[in-house]
Amino acid sequence: RVGGFLRALLRAANALLQQRRYHAALAVIKGFRTAPCDYGAKIRAPHALVMTFLFKSGSFREKLKSIAQATYAHSRNLAYFVFTYKGLLAAQSRLQGKKIPFHSFLAACIGGWLVFGDNNPINSQIIMYLLSRILFGLSRLAVQKGYIPQPRQDPFPLLAALVWGTVLWLFEYHRDTLQPSLQSSMTYLYEDSEVWHDVSDFLIYNKRTDSK
């Protein structure tokens, strides 16, 4: 009996999922589920794991707690944003009877303000991640639309030179303007490599601990 009931329940659920009139609402629910369970955990957890064990001090338990908190905050914000964005998108489309490009922009602006408006390390990392890709995307769009001419040569080498030149200049002379995690990465690569005491912190460790 239980097996038959479960099969009937599964068939009913599958039938409901095929109903086009419920598609917008179901998409909101699936997006809310996908953001924390799939994307947030798969992307944020490995990043937090590497950054925490590489650069942060503290006990093993404290590091695990930090990883869990970062993963939870990232996943939660993504879930809230997807829910808000897709909900507003569906509402606008229903009110106007059709979907237009401005709907996406407005819904995302509202979601960004409500969910990512708090200036904290997690939100800051996400916004900077998006900003870099927006600049690339807008540059390509400007070429596609003919607003700027197609470069005769690949501009990427020049871009790479300017980006690295600027970030190292900021690191050397205006370090406080850079994000803390970037400061830690650059300190690890460019400053700790100038200090050593013996073979252990020359070939094996990047930096000798105080106990040595």
Mean pLDDT: 82
SSE ordering = HHHHHHHH
Helix content: over 70%
Approximately how much beta-strand content do the residues carry? under 5%
Structural class: mainly alpha
Silhouette: flat
How many β strands by DSSP? 0
SS element count, helices: 8
In whole angstroms, how far apart are the ends? 68 Å
Domains (count): 3
Uncertain segments are none
Main pleated sheet: none
As a whole number of angstroms, the C-alpha radius of gyration is: 24 Å
Kindly summarize this structure in a few lines:
With 212 residues, the chain is mostly helical. It has helices at residues 2-17, 23-55, 60-96, 101-116, 121-144, 156-173, 180-191, 200-204.
3D architecture notes:
The chain is 76% helix and 0% strand. With 212 residues, it is mainly alpha-helical. The chain is flat. The mean pLDDT is 82.
